Amino acid sequence: MTVRDRFWEDIPLRQMTNEEWEALCDGCGRCCLNKLEDIDTDELIFTRVACRLFDDTTCRCANYAERKRIVPECVVLTPDTLKDIAYWMPETCAYRLLHDGQRLPDWHPLVTGDPASTLASGISMLGRTVPEHAIPVEDWEDYPLDD
């Protein structure tokens, strides 16, 4: 993968190459968590219930290339869709942060040069999720992400 040095600091999201765009993902897995929205407060609640394609041992999608076909409700993040779905992304998400004019966190793998820095930061969902097929949707609220 070829990316420009520290590209995220001065290249707008829309001008990034596909490799640079993909490199922004820190691999935390939080975007693959099912979320609930409180209808009274509009509060977004992340659950530990993961999408059926989420691989809890790698924090990656088990079929990234075909995810939208397999999981029609999957949101494919692009520069065009980001403006409408940024609020559904974790607050630590590089895409959301850059969209909002903020910097990447100090623990982000692009900043540290170490892909394990996401796990070391405590942000990673590695080994912390429950597969959605194991929990009835009406019980998802019993599995909030507490951290």
UniProtKB/TrEMBL annotation:
Signal sequence segment: none
InterPro entries listed in its UniProt record: Puta_zinc/iron-chelating_dom, UCP006173
Highest taxon of source: Bacteria
Family in the record: Belongs to the UPF0260 family.
Entry-linked PANTHER family: UPF0260 PROTEIN YCGN (PTHR37421:SF1)
Protein name, per record: UPF0260 protein BD293_0936
Organism: Roseinatronobacter monicus
Phylogenetic placement of the source organism: Bacteria, Pseudomonadati, Pseudomonadota, Alphaproteobacteria, Rhodobacterales
